Amino acid sequence: MSRVLVIGDLHEPVSHPGYLQFCTDLYEEWDCDKVVFIGDIVDWHAISFWVKEPNCSGPKDEYDLSLTKVKKWYKAFEEADVCIGNHDERPERLAKTVSIPPCLLKEYNTVWETPKWKWKYDLIIDDVYYYHGTPNGGSFQSIHPAWNAVGKMLMSVVMGHYHSRASIGWRANPYKRVFGMDVGCGIDVKAWQFVYGKHAKDRPILSAGLVIDGTPYHEIMPCGQREKYHKDKFLKRKRRR
Fold first, then answer.
1. For residue 82, what are the β-bridge partners?
2. I need a labelling partner for 17 at 20 to 30 A (CA). Which of 99, 153, 192, 202 fits?
3. CA-to-CA distance for 108 and 67, rounded, in angstroms?
4. By C-alpha distance, which of 107, 81, 78 is closest to 92?
C-alpha cells in the first residue's frame, strides 16, 4: 500500500511562505512515496467571475507570479497527482462563456510546465477517493464536507476546497470502516486575494493530510507566533538573500 502526502489548496501565487517547507518536512518525516495535490494549485483571481480586488495583479502578471511559485512545488515534488480545482479551471470556464471549446486551450502540464504531474479531477489510491471538492449542489456551510461525501461515495474520501474545514471523521458498519478527511489549506490568509473573508469568524486551517497504508492522519501547520513555520521566518530569509 501507499504512503500518501496530501497537500492542501495552494492558490498560488499566495500560498503561505512556509507551507512548502512544511509539506517537504512531512514527506520526509512520514517516509511518503506518493503526493496528491488536492486542488486549486493556482488562484486566478484576475479572471474570476466575482468582484476583483483592485490591489491584485492583472492576468499576465498573476500568471507569471503563479508560474514561478508552481515551479518551486514541481522541483520539490516532481512526481505527483493533481486534483483539478475550481480555481484551476477558471480559464476553461471563462472561455466557454465566449464559445471557445476546450480543444483550443493548452493542457495544464503545458501551461504550468509540470510534465510529470498527472492532472485529473479525481483518483483512487488504496480504495480511498481523492478529489478537490468543488460544490455540486452541496453547501459551503457544511461542517464536515468530506464526511458527508463518504455517504455519497460509499468509500473513504479525501478532499480540500473548504479552507476552514480540517478534520477526520469516521463511519462504520459491521463489515467496514471508512473515513472522510478534510485536508485544510496552505494559503496566506493576509493576501489581497482573500480579503473577501476578512470578517469571517471561521478562519482557514493551515494543514496537510497523510494516508499511510490506508489510514488517515491530519497534521496542523505550526505557524503561529514563535512557532516553526511562522511566515516572518521565511520572509526574513528572502530579505537576507
1. 37, 119
2. 202
3. 12
4. 107
Q: Which of 74, 43, 40 is nearest to 57 (CA)?
A: 43
The band of 200, judged by pLDDT with boundaries at 50, 70 and 90, is confident
In Å, how far are 47, 83, 194, 210 from 159, measured between CA atoms?
24, 9, 20, 12
Q: Which H or E run contains 208?
A: strand 207-212
CA-to-CA distance for 108 and 102, rounded, in angstroms?
Answer: 12
The radius of gyration computed from the CA coordinates of the chain, to the nearest angstrom, equals 18
- What residue ranges do the domains of the chain occupy? 3-240
Do 221 and 233 meet the contact criterion of CB atoms below 8 Å apart?
no
Q: For 3-240, CATH number?
A: 3.60.21.10
Helices (H), 44-165: 59-76, 90-96, 108-111, 145-153
- What is the amino acid identity at position 187? I
- The model's pLDDT over 223-235, given as tens digits with 9 standing for 90+, comes to 999 999 999 999 8
**Amino acid at the residue 165:** R
The residues, ordered by sequence, that sit 6+ positions from 137 with a Cβ below 8 Å of its Cβ are none
Question: Please, which residues bridge with residue 185 across strands?
Answer: 9, 206
Q: What is the pTM of this model?
A: 0.94
CA 114 distance to own-chain centroid: 16
For cell 467496514, what's the residue? 176
Calpha distance 115→103 (Å, rounded): 19
